[in-house]
Each structure stands twice: as structure tokens, then as C-alpha cells.
Design goal:
Blueprint (H helix, E strand, L loop, with lengths): L1 H24 L5 H15 L3 H6 L5 E3 L2 E3 L1 H11 L2 H7 L5 E3 L2 E6 L2 E8 L2 E9 L2
Length: about 130
């Protein structure tokens, strides 16, 4: 029980620290994206698959196949590996026009607006 509380406290401290750093480094970022990113990153850190899928544009292209909501949930652990999740805790999005890119664990995650809301759009290999 004590370990769980300590882990929670460390996670919250890390998120608050990275949120302050992110805000300072992305002062020209869209405030709506910053809110989205904070929520998305928290969902990844907590392994909250339902929230992540709700923040993802579907169908989602993975392994050359369009994946539905239920199919995305099945491939979630392949996409968001332990290494990717650790990286997301401190990753800093880079603005590319109206969209944002996040580089983690050899992958690039692309975020942009869909019907006025930010979503995870796709990912690719960072060559």
C-alpha cells in the first residue's frame, strides 16, 4: 500500500514538473492542444486505454490496416510499449503548422484537429 502511494506521488510530481517545462517551451502552442496533450499524456501514463482511444482518430492505420475502436484496443500494447509510455511522460511536442509531432522510442506520433478537437492521427517510424 505504501509503495502504491509513493508511486502515485512520484507520478504526480513528474507530471507537474513536465507540465511546467512543457508550458515554458511551448508558449506559442495552442492552449487547446496543451490541455489535450496533458490529458493524453496522463491517460498513457495511467494506461487508460479507453481514454486514449477516445482521443484517437478512428479508423486508425496500424500495420497497413485500418483499425476500428475495438481493434485499436487490441493493438494498444503493441503501439504503447513500456518504452513509449516512459518517453511520453517527458516528451515535448513540436509544432508543425497546425499539427504537433511527438518523438518517442523511435516513433513519431502525429496529432491534429478532427472536427475541431485534437486527436492522435497516426504514427510512423522516426528515420
Amino acid at each position: 500500500m505504501m509503495k502504491r502511494h509513493l508511486l502515485l506521488l512520484l507520478s504526480v510530481t513528474l507530471l507537474l514538473t513536465t507540465s511546467v517545462t512543457l508550458a515554458a517551451q511551448t508558449k506559442n502552442a495552442d492552449p487547446a492542444f496543451l490541455k489535450f496533450w496533458s490529458n493524453f499524456r496522463t491517460a498513457i501514463t495511467k494506461n487508460d486505454k479507453e481514454t486514449v482511444v477516445s482521443m484517437t482518430k478512428l479508423p486508425f492505420l496500424f500495420d497497413n490496416q485500418e483499425r476500428s475502436r475495438s481493434e485499436f484496443l487490441k493493438i494498444y500494447d503493441q503501439l504503447f510499449t513500456r518504452k513509449v509510455k516512459r518517453c511520453f511522460a517527458t516528451a515535448k511536442p513540436l509544432r508543425e503548422g497546425d499539427n504537433y509531432d511527438v518523438f518517442c522510442a523511435g516513433l513519431i506520433f502525429y496529432f491534429g484537429k478532427v472536427d475541431g478537437e485534437y486527436k492522435l492521427l497516426e504514427f510512423g517510424v522516426d528515420d
